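User: Can you recover a sequence for this backbone? Please restate the input before giving your answer.

Assistant: Of course. Working from this structure:
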């Protein structure tokens, strides 16, 4: 029988995500106990900064209770639009390393990087690189757990928060898990924990090694399952989100763009980002869309079908440029506030993607090289000549 493939799974979890975004965006909130939630005394804490956690403030806690524990607690209203946008940027970073990304929430995901190791070297190198890109591009920190499976990766990401990086190997499974309290195991809760306590089972090691016949009093027919979990066994696959309908990149400019050359340059960069994401997901696109918003918020889209599906930057960029030029003739001198490049009519690629051997054509080899550089050094590391100032 074949040995099962040894998997490398990452669990990436942003540190105090909503609160960290607020502290990043408002220097007055930095270093302060902060709760994101209602601003009165009603409602609950949606997220607490680490400074607030020191006072015992936790998410889902009634605000009234949070204020009792920490009277100087600062409060801000949640800005879900902003968190969603930042989440999109985080998941875009994940896609540079593998299409096998399973999102659990806006700020948390499993990544199966097993097939990416030939490019990036090790799961540890991938984790370091992801943490650095999140820090450098978003000004936020994440904690990462690396393990042979999802269960242990999720436990590991929580062991050294914030800004943590904990790797658990098949060899170190028991030494890491055994001392941990049983409550870290998903599936053990108020119904089962008291029974375990009565048996004197406090740690995962005790749960793992206690005879099943004794444990059955507390865990019933889940006994074997929970003992396997306490031993760090889990073979659930990482399941990427359902097929996407479209992929796009857009940008709002600090100063409206007017000159055709500036518009083309911005469009080229957006085309590159969109095409790179398309390839990272192993997809081909049959339609290119350009979105243009003028200074008065008038927004139009222009769309064109392709003769043949593609994931090549060159084709997507050229099509987007033609759409923009045609539009610009109708609106010469327009002040453009936002540009976007999207692709749709997606299907799964049989062409080489980021994690396969690139094909022979010059365009494919160029794209594959660009993707690798971008994955290693970040999305701004490389632009084609046309995107450069
Ligand atoms: Mg989190």
């Amino acid at each position: 029988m074949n040995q099962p493939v040894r998997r490398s799974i990452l669990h990436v979890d942003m540190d105090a995500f909503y609160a960290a975004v607020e502290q990043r965006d408002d220097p007055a909130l930095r270093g302060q106990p902060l709760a994101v939630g209602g601003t009165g005394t009603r409602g609950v804490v949606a997220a607490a900064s680490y400074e607030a956690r020191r006072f015992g403030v936790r998410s889902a806690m009634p605000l009234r209770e949070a204020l009792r524990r920490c009277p100087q607690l600062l409060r801000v209203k949640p800005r879900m639009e902003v968190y969603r946008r930042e989440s999109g940027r985080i998941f875009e970073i994940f896609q540079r390393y593998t299409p096998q990304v399973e999102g659990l929430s806006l700020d948390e995901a499993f990544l199966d990087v097993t097939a990416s190791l030939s490019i990036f070297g090790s799961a540890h190198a991938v984790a370091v690189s992801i943490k650095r890109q999140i820090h450098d591009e978003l000004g936020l920190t994440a904690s990462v757990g690396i393990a042979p499976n999802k269960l242990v990766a999720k436990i590991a990401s929580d062991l050294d928060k914030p800004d943590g990086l904990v790797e658990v190997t098949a060899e170190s499974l028991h030494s890491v898990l055994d001392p941990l309290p049983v409550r870290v195991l998903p599936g053990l809760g108020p119904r089962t924990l008291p029974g375990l306590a009565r048996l004197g089972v406090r740690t995962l090691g005790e749960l793992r090694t206690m005879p099943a016949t004794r444990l059955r009093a507390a865990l019933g027919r889940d006994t074997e399952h929970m003992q396997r979990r306490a031993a760090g066994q889990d073979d659930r696959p990482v399941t990427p989100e359902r097929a996407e309908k479209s992929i796009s990149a857009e940008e709002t400019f600090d100063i409206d763009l007017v000159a055709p050359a500036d518009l083309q340059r911005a469009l080229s960069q957006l085309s590159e980002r969109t095409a790179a994401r398309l390839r990272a997901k192993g997809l081909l696109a049959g339609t290119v869309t350009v979105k243009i918003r003028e200074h008065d918020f008038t927004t139009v889209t222009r769309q064109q079908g392709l003769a043949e599906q593609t994931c090549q930057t060159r084709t997507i960029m050229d099509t987007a440029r033609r759409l923009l030029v045609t539009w610009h003739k109708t609106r010469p001198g327009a002040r453009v506030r936002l540009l976007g490049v999207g692709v749709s009519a997606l299907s799964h690629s049989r062409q080489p993607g980021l994690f396969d051997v690139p094909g022979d054509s010059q365009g494919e080899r160029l794209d594959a090289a660009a993707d690798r550089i971008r994955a290693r050094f970040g999305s701004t590391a490389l632009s084609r000549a046309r995107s450069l100032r």
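That completes the design. The domain at 246-387 is CATH 3.30.1490.100 (Dna Ligase; domain 1).
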